[in-house]
Design goal:
The complex is a heterodimer of chains A (409) and B (297). The relative contact order of chain A is 0.14. Chain A folds into two domains: 225 residues, Rossmann fold (3-Layer(aba) Sandwich); 156 residues, Response regulator (Rossmann fold, 3-Layer(aba) Sandwich). Helix content of chain A is 45%, strand content 17%. Chain A is built from 13 helices and twelve strands. The longest helix of chain A has 25 residues. In chain A, the strands form two sheets. Chain A has a seven-stranded mixed beta sheet, with helices on both faces. Chain A is elongated. With 297 residues, chain B is mostly helical. Chain B has one domain: ABC transporter involved in vitamin B12 uptake, BtuC (Orthogonal Bundle), CATH 1.10.3470. Chain B is globular, with a radius of gyration of 19 Å. Classes of the chains: A alpha/beta (409), B mainly alpha (297). At the A-B interface, strand 7, helix 8, helix 9 and helix 10 of A face helix 1, strand 1, helix 5 and helix 9 of B.
Chain lengths: 409, 297
């Protein structure tokens, strides 16, 4: 009797162990390194950006990865938007996580790792626009958007035709030498103007501090040169200082063009209200986070409701979603090609270069992406979206604006 | 083609920015005079003062005439707390030890600011009207102009205080030598505490002028670095000298930014004050008005 009961218990325990062990043994865990900036110049947008990355991974693990037998682990590292910091972190990241992909924040991460990643065979996915200094073939770093120069040029063309400007659009650039990426941003727009003198003229590029003391004199100089739009793709502090200078000079109607990381909402908060940015613009090649119902907005609301995401619907969260979705779709594609238990960083990179990612796969957060071996960003079919402040409201001004060709600089 | 009006605009605006640097540099000097400590955390004190003003005006809605003096008082208390916790225990210790503490203080204050106020960029209240003062063809930002007047008054006032009042002379004695000052019955701790309170108040005043109508986050501390060449040019002991040094550094920086930057396509103007600083350290380490120390062995 005793022996029979023992057999039953042992049998039940064995079944329980096998049942519990089966899914675990069928699931392979891969790691993604999430480089962030918690204590540097973009610390203010990290809550949304990192929150969106985490929510996307949670969603993918539950609704895609489970079915494929893959689980993604992610760990954050504070790169401080500092190339030296990111470079010093990298050996530890590699040893600790052995990641199949890295999510980067910006130019310093590119500058720090572009020489290391090909040897370590780990691709890095960015959320930002691309950089001229990283515009090389055989990429290991991938941007979902063209360079800032491309995005600005798309805006220049759209603005010029919208306003019916006959001659070249007179552009003033306010940038900074605090980061190689900032300098590169200015160079891209300058290159477009140089090659298209009938379309754009850079009246002056002003390099200033990250937190400018006062820009009244410099902006006054731009005004005297007949500037029609001021291009600031660096940070919100520069936007605020420029706006104050324009207001002081009675020329607040000269529009400022911003990018994603220093866009209208962030700059509006920094300047003290959206009304100060009436008629200004932001431009980038990804979804604009207005309150309008879109597929991208629906995805955000879904992860907030279902996966308790803390990210708000903002440009920063759109950036977090875009790079994580590209990384996860590439891991999916790699797993289909090499097997769910054989995914490596190299396989992820190969998948990126050989498998297009459709707009549907990114919930229209990004347009269709087809990477090639000639650049770190898709070189064909590039478009940008333009947002503005109209009657105090944040609205889309134009969608799918074509990006003109710019030669390498 | 050379334009005289442009030249004057750059010269005047550069000089005014230089006087703002001079105000921040006074914070360095006041603390150095009392404790022989070069305070690496001066920029962080500017940010702290800025956040106190932001919190009182924007968050609590206090009127400026209440908020600004209150912010100065809070800053003074903050300076006293720093002195009490960190520096009162270091009297008689080497300058090196104290300087290392200021580096730790920099990291600590930055961390506290991030913890309490967060990393977000905040709108700083408009303390001075945005409309510039226009004299002929010369356009002068109002905040910098008023700031320059305040800086000159504060600079001359402090110079008088240190050279003509009993308390100021005691602090000067402390600056000469802690042990000698103690033997003369002067409270070194009290002098150092007063210097830290004054240094923090000057930083808050600097923040008000620097940030009026602009944006604020922890990166505003960079102004501390910009003020460093001014303090070095003046010499770390001369309050009145810092005004002249500020004018020189600011004017040179303004002109270099206007005439050299567009030619070379870069921010030479931002680097130039540091070139001046290195040259000074090479030729005259004590600065233009610094005390020459004679050491007898």
């Amino acid at each position: 009797m005793k022996s029979r009961r023992f057999k039953w218990i042992a049998g039940a325990a064995a079944v329980a162990v096998v049942t519990l062990a089966l899914p675990a043994s069928a699931q392979t865990t891969y790691n993604i390194a999430s480089i962030a900036d918690f204590t540097g110049p973009y610390a203010d947008i990290m809550k949304d950006l990192v929150g969106a990355r985490r929510a996307t991974v949670d969603w993918w693990n539950e609704e895609v990865g489970k079915g494929m037998g893959i689980k993604i682990g992610m760990k954050d590292f504070d790169g401080r938007y500092d190339a030296a910091q990111t470079a010093s972190l990298w050996p530890g990241i590699k040893a600790e996580l052995n990641p199949v992909a890295v999510l980067g924040v910006g130019g310093p991460d590119v500058a720090a790792l572009q020489g290391r990643l090909p040897a370590d065979k780990v691709p890095m996915l960015m959320s930002t626009a691309g950089y001229g200094f990283a515009w090389k073939g055989d990429p290991w770093i991938f941007n979902p958007r063209p360079t800032y120069g491309h995005e600005a040029a798309g805006f220049f063309e759209w603005f010029r035709s919208t306003r019916g400007i006959k001659g070249p659009l007179k552009v003033g650039i306010i940038s900074s030498e605090a980061s190689p990426a900032y300098v590169d941003i200015a160079k891209g727009a300058e290159k477009f103007a140089k090659d298209n003198p009938d379309k754009a003229e850079i009246v002056e590029t002003i390099f200033t501090e990250v937190q400018p003391t006062d820009l009244t004199t410099q902006v006054g100089r731009l005004i005297r040169k007949g500037v029609q739009v001021i291009d600031i793709q660096t940070n919100t502090a520069a936007v605020v200082a420029t706006k104050r200078a324009l207001q002081a000079l009675g020329k607040a109607d000269i529009p400022i063009m911003m990018s994603s990381h220093n866009g209208l909402i962030a700059s509006g908060k920094a300047v003290g209200g959206m009304k100060d940015l009436e008629g200004d613009y932001e431009v980038y090649g990804m979804a604009v986070p207005t309150e309008q119902k879109t597929k991208a907005h629906d995805f955000h609301q879904m992860v907030v409701a279902k996966y308790k995401s803390q990210a708000t619907w903002s440009v920063a969260s759109v950036m977090g979603y875009n790079q994580t979705l590209v990384a996860l779709r590439a891991i999916e594609a790699a797993a289909r090609k090499v097997g769910a238990d054989k995914v490596t960083g190299e396989a992820v990179r190969t998948a990126l270069l050989t498998t297009p990612i459709s707009a549907d796969q990114t919930f229209s957060i990004l347009p269709n992406l087809t990477y090639t071996n000639e650049a770190p960003f898709p070189v064909k079919g590039l478009t940008v979206n333009v947002a503005t402040i109209k009657d105090g409201k944040y609205v889309i001004a134009a969608e799918n604006v074509p990006v003109p060709t710019i030669a390498k600089w | 083609m050379f334009d005289t009006i442009d030249f004057l605009n750059y010269l005047v605006n550069g000089s005014l920015v230089g006087l703002l640097y001079a105000l921040i540099a006074m914070g360095f000097i006041v603390i150095y005079r009392a404790s022989k400590v070069f305070n690496f955390a001066q920029g962080e004190l500017v940010v702290f003062g800025g956040f106190i003003v932001w919190w009182m005006v924007i968050q609590t809605g206090l009127p400026l005439f209440v908020a600004l003096p209150l912010a100065m008082a809070v800053s003074a208390i903050f300076g006293l707390i720093i002195e009490r916790i960190f520096f009162s225990r270091l009297v008689g210790e080497s300058s090196f030890a104290m300087v290392m503490v200021t580096i730790g203080l920099l990291i600590l204050i930055r961390g506290l600011i991030l913890l309490i106020f967060g990393p977000q960029v905040r709108p700083f209240p408009i303390i001075f009207a945005l409309k510039p003062v226009i004299i002929g063809d010369i356009l002068i930002p109002r905040s910098l102009l008023i700031g320059a007047v305040i800086t000159v008054i504060v600079g001359l006032g402090l110079s008088w205080f240190f050279n003509n009042t009993r308390a100021g002379l005691k602090m000067t004695a402390v600056a000469e030598d802690h042990q000698v000052a103690l033997s003369m019955g002067i409270s070194v701790k009290r002098s150092i505490a007063f210097a830290w309170a004054l240094g923090a108040v000057l930083s808050t005043l600097g923040a008000i002028i620097y940030l009026s109508g602009k944006s604020l986050n922890f990166l505003a501390s960079d102004i501390g670095l910009s003020a460093l060449p001014v303090a070095l040019l003046a010499g770390f002991e001369s309050i009145a000298g810092v005004l002249l040094a500020g004018l020189i550094v600011g004017a040179v920086q303004g002109l270099v930014t206007a005439y050299v930057d567009p030619v070379v396509g870069g921010a030479v103007g931002s680097v130039f004050p540091f070139v001046i600083m290195l040259v000074i350290l090479f030729i005259r380490p004590t600065g233009m008005f610094g005390w020459r120390t004679i050491e007898r062995v």
